[in-house]
Write a structure and sequence with these properties.
Helix 1 packs parallel to helix 10, helix 6 crosses helix 7 and helix 6 crosses helix 10. It is globular and about 50 Å long. Helix content is 39%, strand content 17%. The strands form 3 sheets. It has a 6-stranded parallel β-sheet. The termini are far apart. It has 10 helices and 11 strands. Helix 7 links the parallel strand 5 and strand 6.
């Protein structure tokens, strides 16, 4: 039987550490503050934003939620970011992705003060990650994946890892974290257009799936005894469910699980870690 890596349990450990750090900072007169900016009414984004704000409240963080209409202009978003950059009570700024099409997301990210960029997407923080400079912020989802691997006792040193997905949000930073000194994995970045993808993945001791396609990774992609981290979270229509849909990952869990040494479920795997690492980054920003 494979080990099911429980993201809820590991996230609870991270948040317990965070609660202790927040109490220490508050005793020094500092309350870490996080601002979340939502442009438009994307249902999934609204759920994410609400859960982030709720978690802040539970832990005693100061949080501000700013909701702009889906017709908001680039200048209006810039103005909000500029105000938050100047606000001493806000240590972390997050603009929820994806924004509506009229907003240039990359330009908004560059407008955030890198010292408040708790998402880790500003070019300065990306460079620090590549340079292995620990003063920067690491994107929350890849940082959460690394924490899950550590919690499951997975040795990365000298192991072969394949990251399926090349986004700046998960794929590329994940590869940088795995190849960094201390992790010492041999890393291949693959994607949906990689030739002979199944063959490439079967070499891997560790497969990280972040391709954004439901049930994309099948049994033929995974060698016996591999560790699989499924970053995907996809809504798939399912008439048998009351909601009319089910959540699934980028990995066909039923087909793959029995071949693995350890695997993350969806939901309840990587998802809870993303918010936990965001809180961790906000505390770092406050320090």
């Amino acid at each position: 039987m494979p080990t099911i890596i429980d993201g809820k349990e590991v996230a609870a450990q991270v948040l317990a550490e965070c609660a202790q750090e927040i109490a220490e900072l508050k005793s020094q007169g500092i309350t870490p503050g996080l601002a979340v900016v939502l442009v438009g009414e994307d249902p999934a984004s609204k759920v994410y934003v609400s859960s982030k704000v709720k978690k802040c409240a539970e832990l005693g963080l100061h949080s501000e939620k700013i909701v702009l209409s889906k017709e908001a202009t680039q200048e209006e978003v810039f103005a909000v970011v500029e105000r938050l950059n100047r606000d001493p009570t806000i240590h972390g700024i997050l603009v929820q992705s994806p924004p509506p099409p009229q907003i240039d997301e990359a330009a908004i990210v560059r407008a955030i003060n890198p010292a408040k960029d708790v998402d880790g997407f500003h070019p300065e923080n990306v460079a620090k990650l590549a340079l292995e400079d620990s003063s920067g912020f690491v994107p929350c989802t890849p940082a959460g994946c690394m924490r899950l691997l550590a919690a499951a006792g997975v040795e990365t040193s000298g192991k072969e890892a394949v990251v399926v997905g090349r986004s700046m949000i998960v794929g590329k930073p994940m590869a940088l974290l795995l190849v960094a000194k201390g992790s010492d994995a041999t890393v291949t970045i693959a994607h949906s257009r990689t030739k002979n993808l199944a063959e490439v993945c079967r070499r891997a001791d560790i497969v990280v799936a972040a391709v954004g396609i439901p049930d994309f990774i099948k049994a033929e992609h995974i060698k016996d005894g591999a560790v699989v981290i499924d970053v995907g979270i996809n809504r798939v229509e399912d008439a048998s469910r009351k909601s009319g849909y089910r959540l699934c990952g980028d990995v066909d869990f039923e087909a793959v699980a029995d071949k693995t040494h350890a695997i993350t479920p969806v939901p309840g795997g990587v998802g809870p870690m993303t918010i936990a690492m965001l809180i961790k980054n906000t505390i770092k920003a406050a320090r």
